[in-house]
Model the fold of this input.
Amino acid sequence: MKQLFEIFLFDVKRNIKNFMGAYMLIVPVVILMVLRFFLPSVENSKGMIAVVSEGPNAVDAETIQYFDELVDVKTYASIEDMEQKLRGTGTAEGLYWDPTEEQYVSVLEQSKEGNTIFSVSARMIRQRYYQQNYPDTPRITTFISAVPSELSDRTKISPVATMGGSIFLVFMIILSGFIIGLGIVNDKEEGTDRAIRVSPTSKADYFIGKSIQPLLIMAVYTIISLLMLGLLEVNIFQVYLVVLASFSVTLLFGLVLGALGKNETEAIGYGKGLSMIVMLAILGGTLLPGSWQWIIWWTPFYWVYDMLEGIFTETASWGSIAWKSALMVGLTGLYFMLLRKKIVKGLS
Amino acid sequence: MNRISSLFKKDIILGIKDVFVILELVSAVFITLLLLFVIPADLKREATIFVYDSTGVVEDFLKTNIPDYENSKGEYYVESRGEVIKGMQENRSALGMIITEGANTRYQVEFLRQPCTSDHITKEVNVEMDDFLSILAPPAGVYSPDVYETVRITSLQWGVRDILPFNKRLMPPILLMMAGIIGLFAMVSLIGQERADLTIRAYRVSPAGLWEFIVSKHLVVLFTGLCSFSILYLPIMGFNGYLESLIVIVLTIIMGSSLGVILGSFFKNPMGAMLWVLMLMMFLALPAISLFLPVFSPEWLKLIPSYHTLFALDAAIFPNNNSHIIWQGAAVLAVLNIFLFPLSTMIFNKMIQKKT
Done:
């Protein structure tokens, strides 16, 4: 136990000395701050209408104000400027006033041949005109909007925030794996591992000692990320259970890097290769429809992402977390067994 | 020139020996196989809205006029309220709509939201449905001709694009991560290794300049990146847009490796730089959201250089009268590189002289 603690302290001191400690504190906070700033802007994204607001083709201020309540309005000085926006990246519609025909012109980036009716701005213009000019005509629709009772127990947290939280924690698993792996490689390069071999420290003490710091970092950042991303309503115990279980993936990641990498360059190369699997899991988890996600069931990262998504959306039960955690740990164990010879050889 | 050539050979041999080059190429082959044989091209889009239209007025119109509406817009027509709710339960982002005959009005539109749905969507759908049903209501809608005359529609381009294959749509972010910003990881580890082995000290007492040392590393990264790019691109896309994509990816690789040089200059230990590398990778991946969710396209996102890579690659892979996006993206990256490349070399020179 004492040796184990010594290894932990040795790593902490070394990381403070080479500023790693500071980076480990700063970098995830910066990432969280970027996510904190980024997520609301994704959540609130609306369709954009590029409106000409100057010269003879200007749309009147009242119409612009009406549009502003429903969509994102961006004003441009001329038709050319507005069309330039439409030809660029992103999706937008244009709008200007034609003084000759005395009508608005809704400009689309691309449309089905012969479309003379359907565009977002055309709908709004017609509706506004109809309501202003035919106030006494009975309305054709009754519009009711509600959350169905079957879904009322669902969280109000947006899917973007839950996705951001899940991706961040998966990222922390990788980061922790890198810390363990590169720490082992560093010891190999500096000969610290040989010094430890002649000391009373056992191999188990060494590896457990090396894992304490990343585990603490993950534990601390889990709560910080929940606070910063506004995910406070989630079941924190479930989150920590998943984080603890997913530490098996971190350990495997770190051991593989430490064993395969003869130097830091090699370890980083392997780390990048393994990070691709993470990227696949995240891309698959976010872009593939549910019926196609079996394609990435083989990666433990998918299960971590899936469980965290379930917890953050408040749809995960203890039962589902238990079997998915078991499956994830089982998969990790399977990969460990497959790579066991290489890991043992690389670390001995 | 001879010196750069010798350095390049040495760096390639080291890159292969340290498995960096091999790993990059193997990863590219693995991803290519996945894209070709596992990830489907004709993936049916997940529903974004489930509609139960008991009047048939909207459903009939769309099915007659837009046959592939479900695939292109993600609107699914179902047979009961229960199916709408079931669809919404399965997909947390999906919305629901039930169109029935109204008690006091001709139609009743019940818009079913998820608890997290933004209010502005409700307002937009309200206007949209009022207008839609005012046009479609048999026999000839309720609008008088003057309502239609208030606005006319024009388009910069007529004709609807084919539905893009799902596996090919993933190409821009994959090319960015696998080839474009390969230099972030590679430069940090290549420079870090030279510093750890103290070979950089030996190099400094040779007649060669430090800029040659760094140019050689850029060439290795460029070579590996271009091999990865071709492995990924050619089997999936063939030569369609290859040249345009190549130009964009070359400029992105130079940008990524210049950033890698800056990080490698500041950190003696690649482990320290790794955190920043991962952070930068995440940051550079953010504009991919805009690629898959075009409605999210704030101006500030364009300040992230990878935004231009992603959209330029997308325009090259899926040509649609949008070649200007390729050249705009390439121009932005080229201008950035004009500053970044010498700056990174200068920082490297200063830092190495200071630390060795």
